Amino acid sequence: MDHPDIEQKLGGRGEEEQETRERILSAARQLMAQKGYKGATTRKISELAGVNEVTVFRHFKNKVGILTELLKEIMDVREQLEQGLQGEFSDLKQMLVSYARTYYGLLVERKEIFMICMIEADNHPEVVQMFSSLPMTAVEVLSNKLLAFQEQGHLPKVDPFTAALMFVSTFFYAFMAKYRVNLDIEMVEEELFENASEILLQGIK
Amino acid sequence: MDHPDIEQKLGGRGEEEQETRERILSAARQLMAQKGYKGATTRKISELAGVNEVTVFRHFKNKVGILTELLKEIMDVREQLEQGLQGEFSDLKQMLVSYARTYYGLLVERKEIFMICMIEADNHPEVVQMFSSLPMTAVEVLSNKLLAFQEQGHLPKVDPFTAALMFVSTFFYAFMAKYRVNLDIEMVEEELFENASEILLQGIK
DNA sequence: TGAAAATGCAAGTAATTGCTTGCTTGGCAC
DNA sequence: GTGCCAAGCAAGCAATTACTTGCATTTTCA
């Protein structure tokens, strides 16, 4: 009796094995995002994964084992965000649009995990810092960039933190609206990126 | 055997009765916001309320009865938001600041209920529309106001919806950061209102 | 083909959870 | 005092849930 949970088969041997494990993870991800950790019973997970419930416990030590495995999927966020600011941009607006795209893309790409984090923030304390990692670093990273611009004299005296917060919030909100509460807010993302960047730069007055 | 759940004692007779009922509601509000609907067991609720578990079921038909009672607390939001835009303001900025104050105040005032709504959005479908009511009407109301200004020629051609979205998002995000994820983001709310209004109007360029 | 590993199946267990029942206790009004 | 009503207490019940065990079956791969 072993716990393949740990022994991470590196080789290409098992497509089947990994398939099963992946199916379980995928089912759990989906269910936990929808129903929360408690709502995603091991029974339901196994059913959705199309495997026997016992198999779930053969792959993972216990239920939290599944959750912690899932949480690993948000650990590498900061780098990706900073990469979104790496390239050379023709102007400030293009940089903002690109940053918006990157950030929003990250949110959507891992929407289930973020939902789980939101929902379970109080129940699984370790979640909190992981979760805060994306939204807050997103503000931080942009804030720093703006500050740099400011010091070069390219921007007036406005508070760069607030500016970054406003910008990032917008897409977080849009993300939540679209994927958590299914608001029939018809929006074209690319347009939102454009408009928001424009407004942040020029204001509405 | 009766269900005081329904028969809403109008008279002033019972301070005791209402006190108990209120204590139960308050405990449930707190626990559900923290642990979610499932996590808030009737046992825990009764303990936190300092009453016997049976008493809970004497006051409420069943557990969902408690939830639905709690949800009534967000039904009257739109009016309050519109009131926040009612008064006469010296300038546009003062209006925005006031709106921010109103909106953020509403969020904080009912933080538990909103948390519950976020968490339970998928499990209790009736929750969704109630929940969406605040965040989305907040955008709507402001959006309309901006549009009106625009038609009077007071604002340039920027998309008022995006502008409203940006503005509202900011405070929603700040609210989430402070009360859900306990980010050690030190912020003075009143300053945030000021700065965000300024930026929305003038831009950062 | 044959051994080993992965999965299925049947059954069960201890704990939790929502909710009920029957009875007692204590306070308030008349 | 008497009667009423809210609340406490003890006990329990049926369903669910995370998790286990033992064994049969299939799949994989050498």
Task: Summarize this structure as a short list of keywords or feature phrases.
mainly alpha, 71% helix, 205 residues, disordered N terminus, Tetracycline Repressor, domain 2, homodimer, DNA-binding, Arc Repressor Mutant, subunit A, 2 domains
Can you characterise this structure?
The structure is a homodimer of 205-residue chains. Chain A is mainly α. Chain A folds into two domains: 7-60, Homeodomain-like (Arc Repressor Mutant, subunit A, Orthogonal Bundle); 73-204, Orthogonal Bundle (Tetracycline Repressor, domain 2). Chain A is 71% helix and 0% strand. The first copy, chain A, has helices at residues 15-39, 42-49, 53-59, 63-71, 77-83, 92-109, 111-120, 125-151, 160-179, 189-202. The longest helix of chain A is centred in the last third of the chain and has 27 residues, at 125-151. Chain A is elongated and about 65 Å long. The interface between A and B is large, with 50 and 50 residues. The first copy, chain A, binds a DNA duplex (30 and 30 nucleotides) through helix 1 and helix 3.
